[in-house]
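During the reporting period, we have paired protein sequences with backbone structure tokens. One record among many follows, to show the layout:
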Amino acid sequence: MDYRLEQRAKVCVSHDFSKDLLETLKTSNYKKPLISIDSFLLQSPVVNKALDTLKQADINYVVYDEIVPEPPFEIVNKGAKLYQENECDSIIAIGGGSVIDASRGINIVSHCGGQIQEYIEDKTIDQRILGLIAVPTTSGTGSELSNALVVTDTKKQEKLAVLSDEAVSEYVILVPELAKSMPKGLTISTGLDVFAHAMEAYTSNLSTPVVNAICEKIMFLVFKYLPTGMKEKHHLLGSTIHQKNWKKIYMVTVYSCTKDGNQWILRKFIPCWTKDYLLKK
């Protein structure tokens, strides 16, 4: 059967990260997670409160905070080794797209063996890999729901993808309190990135009526709430709407909309939106 729309991850929007993270672990009886995290987030009050809650609940965890943007093979394989040596049973990925991508790779290697580079062409993943709990802290690419991860071959200076529907996140916890702490420029760039991805899907030849409806709603919400979320640092609705990754900026949006002859959509939806324009608002 050819499914046209499928969502395998369980998604929670949380305003009490400590409570919901603990409940998520208990739901699947996970007792020893590897916490894969951007190192600077270890200073976050929201994250520290969650870690304290895990300690009080006698959840032993291991922290891995060495992931860098565009993670190389070595970072993923090292994380998998740490996971296996400590007999972890799940991964909590807290951070941007690189952290979540690397964590997906760690989960694959930990469960299926080998090294992550072997899964680019040779090795296949034949069964569902559970245990990845993704907690995105920025907006845009939606790595927390993706079936792809990008790793870097530092010797060849190449970015390569591993694709598997069986390795998507088991759970996703969206925490607006984490997204609202982003600087103004990052809020704008990531919000526009959300818009760009919705527009790309909307104009794709593979789009369906259901996908179109979702994308139209996303573009409407970003258009309505991005200026609010940008101007009001503590506006949780704005933070919730564009919570996902940070790497692409407005010029990527323009390129995505013009390369296939879809300039009219850009003019129709965002006639005056540029990063400089929003910064002046």
